[in-house]
Queue: 2 jobs
Job 1
Amino acid sequence: MATTQVQVSPDKEAAGRSNERTPDPCIVVIFGASGDLTKRKLLPALYHLQQANLLPKDFAVVGVARRPLEASFAPDMKEGIIAGGGVEDNDPKLAPFVDRVQYHAMNFDDAAGYDALKKKLAELDGKFNTKGNRLFYLATAPEYFSDIITYLGQNGMAQPKADKDGHAPWVRTIIEKPFGHDLESARALNDEVNKVFNEDQIFRIDHYLGKETVQNILVFRFANGIFENVWNRNYIDHVEITAAESIGIEGRGPFYEQAGALRDVVQNHVMELLSFVAMEPPVSFQADAVRAEKVKVWKAISPIHPADTVRGQYGPGIVDGKTVPGYRQEDRVHPRSQTETYAAIRLEIENWRWAGVPFYIRAGKRLPKRVTEITIQFKQPPMLLFKGGECHDSSAIKPNLISMRIQPDEGISLRFGAKLPGPSMDISPVHMNFSYADAFGKSSANGYERLLLDAMLGDGTLFAHRDGVEATWALMTPILKAWAETPVKDFPNYAAGTWGPSAADALLESEGRKWRKL
Ligand SMILES: NC(=O)C1=CN([C@@H]2O[C@H](COP(=O)(O)OP(=O)(O)OC[C@H]3O[C@@H](n4cnc5c(N)ncnc54)[C@H](OP(=O)(O)O)[C@@H]3O)[C@@H](O)[C@H]2O)C=CC1
Ligand SMILES: O=C1O[C@H](COP(=O)(O)O)[C@@H](O)[C@H](O)[C@H]1O
């Protein structure tokens, strides 16, 4: 049965930015400056902020890494921004931005390097009028988090002294994922970090929270009067969250071997999505209020039984028309690796809103396409009036769905049944579709822009809190433990370019459901 699209028009006049804020003058110090994340995401994001006049007039960026890149760092970054950011070489804001990007070579575990860094930052304060304010971004492998934090503390760089007027500059730190490896290591890292920084100085980043479409889940639910009334166990049959990627591990073998899909994306990105879908309305859009409601959701999830989990690993296959190797054939991956590149879980949230509503989540690499989507499937009406009788094909009567397309093709659609024109009461599913691009134009934001800006502003609403990180690890750790105790015999169990192992289908089929075709 054909599906009809009903477009939703944006209210162009009402669409516009409000609440734009400019941070204080500051230096952003990026540990891991020559790394992939800095090149592909962080510097382009800072540049886009500058282009949009959202950075303070007085700011500087200092990249820190091991290699001696003093001469080549700024030109390399300029090229990276041009290549990755859709920016022209002659963009008038590019040269002034690059002039403020500096490099400092040091080894993260060398105490003397921090002394030199401290002096360099003080000099740059003089040159760029950045007033001693610092945002330290830990964009490096997690084994260095603890060293860097400790040395910053020992050098007095974490808690700067107040001047004679009692004014102290601010210092904050953004810590990349993965924040810990399991519950125990996450707690230990939290303890280390909390010895040096107060909780309100710590910004544990999950770039999914910087995505417009993720923030829009809260707007959709709490800025509209009509959805929240049906957002509960009385009306919702089940919820699906899919985070599918067509890419493989992109040369990150050693990292991924230690991580796997559960640690890499489920513990953080997918759990964040789930909390936004399931949380109660917070009392305000302030960091503490929002984080408190998220933690309540994670804590209300019943312990996840290993039988409600599925793990997969891709073998060779075809993605986007190209033959790709299996996971075990990837560079620096063990030929008999037990690492999962796919995970699916069925879980329940034991609270008044959600009891009895299954949440099915799945995430994986080398699936047929890149798509992150949340589907809310509603219950059928109690009496299917049009079943039989004049309706020739009652299988066309589909349950209502709200699907939130996080990426790509960002937007939201609502599926409902409509009467097919003609003499009988035949029904066809149609979609009312809101597309971000159609409504507001294409956005170049990658999530990091919003989060870097918020951290410079000291707004932790869209960052993870200690309690939240530990709550999500508390859910994942027993699964990881059970999986480690029972090696898989049938890996690889899905071909690259397919939708994961058949056991993931069985997880839903045993309850009379199917993953939605994406
Ligand atoms: N890449 C991505 O898309 C994403 C990454 N992340 C997270 O971001 C973090 C960084 O990832 P990524 O950029 O991919 O990592 P890379 O391996 O590409 O970069 C690591 C950086 O750390 C530096 N470095 C490593 N060891 C030392 C040392 N002993 N002393 C000084 N510098 C050192 C390297 O410098 P040098 O070159 O001089 O050795 C390099 O700049 C990780 O925590 C990752 O999980 C999170 C989401 C996405
Ligand atoms: O954190 C990570 O996220 C990316 C996926 O991010 P997206 O914004 O492209 O959806 C994933 O590829 C990577 O393995 C993981 O470390």
Job 2
Amino acid sequence: MQKSIVKIENLSHKYSANWAIRDINLEINSYGIVGLLGSNGAGKSTTMNILCGSLNQTEGNVYINGINFRDDPMRAKREIGFLPQSPPLYMDLTVDEYLMYCAGLRHMSGNERKGAVKEAKERCGIAHFSNRLIKNLSGGYRQRVGIAQAIVHRPKVLVLDEPTNGLDPNQIIEVRALIKDIARDRVVIFSSHILSEVQLLCRDIMMIENGRIVFEDSMDAFNNYIAPHSMLVHLNNMPAIMELEAIQGVMKADLLTEKLVRLFFSGDSGIAETIVNESVNKGWRLQEITLEKNSVEEIFKQLSQHQSNNIS
Ligand SMILES: Nc1ncnc2c1ncn2[C@@H]1O[C@H](COP(=O)(O)OP(=O)(O)OP(=O)(O)O)[C@@H](O)[C@H]1O
């Protein structure tokens, strides 16, 4: 049977009296980016810290390449790289000094270190800053150095806790491109509370809310789940509601004002075009159509609701 690259089994963690995460299960069997999405305080950092061996869980097991963290933490840690929310950088070291130091912390031999640092710098696009003090780098380049320290020992699993937080828009684009490239030959677990970022980068998505998984599936399945199901239609000559509800694909029409109606529809993407055609044919004088997308908060609410309905 093929070993999972990452397997999390019934993971729970409690800080003093309060459970921060409860019964998290996850299995990753192929390379690519898995997004961990959750609002503030949902339990992302707790999950990631346990996954990297920085925090000892209260209950459950974490396996990296089949190695149980509890049984052999040293060997499991060799397979994993971690960039925490605040990158662990030494500002008064140069990029080379810092990465050599990190390779040493990863128990790489003297001979091995030089090649590994060179490779990590090239992969992260910082080779030209080898002798620059870290404090003299921009935020985006510091983040690249943070990613380089996390991959210097060539781990097959990389965990990034909100890696684009605090960067300017150009730096965000560059760091995202770097993460995409790095995920070609490893698993990257990436946390964010920005839905659009996770949608852009990730192959799979896991959503946590109040310490519990509320959604876990492919990005495609998620996008289907959150596809808009309603639209606002502004018509100068509003027809009877029954006439609107008779349009194929329209489930329900709610009249909001004399000229504004909300139409609920099933998953059909051609519905807007149908409305335009009907409006032209019947002289409804269409002014505007707006698809109504769910906000992240609404999605969390729906998913949490869905989960508690399933439990009860
Ligand atoms: N060291 C700690 N001691 C006590 N409670 C903690 C500690 N760290 C986190 N918590 C609590 O555990 C819960 C989960 O926190 P966690 O930091 O894992 O969430 P998060 O999803 O990473 O949030 P954020 O996006 O704000 O970083 C929160 O209720 C938080 O207040």
